[in-house]
Amino acid sequence: MSLAVATEGFTHRTAVPLRRVPACVAFACQRGARTLRLVPRYGAGAVDAEVRYLWAGAPGAPTVIVQGGISADRDACANDEHTAPGWWEPLVGPGRAIDLNHVRVLAIDWLDAEDVGAPSVSSEDQAGALAALLDALGIARVAAFVGASYGAMVGLAFAARHPQRVGSLVALAGAHRPHPLATAQRAVQRGIVKLGIENGCVEAALSLARQLALTTYRSGEEFGRRFAGGAEYRDGRFQLPVEGWLEYHGRKFVARFDARRYLALSESIDLHDVDPKAVRVPATLIGFTSDRLVPLADLCLLQQQLGAPASLEVIETAYGHDGFLKEPERLAPLLREALNTCGD
Amino acid sequence: MSLAVATEGFTHRTAVPLRRVPACVAFACQRGARTLRLVPRYGAGAVDAEVRYLWAGAPGAPTVIVQGGISADRDACANDEHTAPGWWEPLVGPGRAIDLNHVRVLAIDWLDAEDVGAPSVSSEDQAGALAALLDALGIARVAAFVGASYGAMVGLAFAARHPQRVGSLVALAGAHRPHPLATAQRAVQRGIVKLGIENGCVEAALSLARQLALTTYRSGEEFGRRFAGGAEYRDGRFQLPVEGWLEYHGRKFVARFDARRYLALSESIDLHDVDPKAVRVPATLIGFTSDRLVPLADLCLLQQQLGAPASLEVIETAYGHDGFLKEPERLAPLLREALNTCGD
After folding, report:
1. Catalytic positions of B, please?
2. Which structural domain range is residue A84 located in?
3. Tens-digit pLDDT profile for residues B125-136
4. pTM of the model
């Protein structure tokens, strides 16, 4: 995969005025888009895809790729053009574990199937887009790829295909393949969204799919602690304490996410399949004891079979799969250690 | 609650010819319906409800109530009018753990909200219907109440309200209250069914709700063992191994179950709330290690707080909540022991 066209301007989903190279307050910051030539795994041939990215941090410092779950975006941290906190704000920024005084973070918005002109999008397609973006930005090699959840899957796909372009891999709550129970739960989520598309009720359906996803992210212990108590009769029906929380987050998700994009990225997790032996990049794997989507047993297997030295760090938490978002204080020393020892 | 009208004939959902007292091959068998006066918890007052029941076993022997999950029916075992295997066939019958040579099994089809003329139906309503049915059949007291899943919840409600009418309680995979994570999962299931009702796609929605329920019944280990392997491209889309299984069982459920009945019984689980101290009947509690719907911790709490001596038996299994259906050989000795020592 190679660079096709380096766009002069930047395009944005939000109505932010176009600027060539937006200057951030404390660090160099590029937030833009490039049109890159990709060969998607499930497509009919090469396509030109627009890849939206953020590249921010100390000018001239080594680059670290940072990618999150399917609902995360390129804004891992607040920046000049996105002043709201990023999805990993506590861990990315000047002086933080991924220290933008010493590295530059590079991140993309995930491509969906439409972006790559194919019926499905693969974790390899995302990895290919990142590699093509490195070419476009003139980055020969990144110090590390730090990926969480789907980002960890893409990190594994990137390390398997482009080992010479990454010093080390830090994979949080993601493995070489999805667990069949998690696949079943996502298949039902996609079934709900498809039902909504087919029957003119896509927003309500997307909300329900997100609510189902939420029940898989946190542990039973966490649900038990937060939502004890009986039903209340309100507005003509019984309401359980957990229902208000589910519905609130369902609505919030519908306001910021698209149903077809959700279908494509959810499916992409379930199509993900990387041979651990093909990953010949030193790796730090991080798992969470109560993660029911990515069981520790799968990370143990990945560690055993990885084609390079790999350590497995386990964080005991009740936050389940959401541990990568909810345990920043325990993750910070692990990330600092992994990035200090990364081989760039 | 008291008997209102003892019907002379029997009514059936299936098109079986009416008979007064159907004779079974090896044991006395009544399979019919009674109209009983009930005072539903969420209703406006007394109602006459039709209660369909099975009463089968050794003539004159002590009666044991047997109730299963929300999708189970009165036919715990094959009988003269229902020759297909019952939902608990391996455990109920002549010579089996619930031995119809020595006891008579009594079971009802669950009432739904419509049956009791109320917006919601409670586990106490089911217990009340069973008590009124005992009056109608002239049964002063049952030797035991054996309930699994929702049936265990109803057993606890029955024991709390009618302690003088039951010798002992055997509660499998059911507790004094639902777990908030399980409530969240069922709330999403009900949301899917309501979406289907509101948008003219109720069958597809009920299928998806059932598929979601299936992901909560079995353990991750069981899913991992059965559905390993990657996606196959068929009929214009990728299909994961677990999807065919989910869809098959979704269709099967739609063919035999009604959406509004599902809504009512699912909600009834989440409204269930019995004070363990109010249960003054000796109890055997049976739990399954991998049951994510009814965690062992909740059964431990129930055992500690129950208002009478209670033992807790734990079965180590990968079948999760479905352990009560899938582990008959390990359940049989526990049921025999519990019924031999029951105080009638």
Report:
1. 149, 291, 321
2. 2-177+273-340
3. 999 999 999 999
4. 0.91
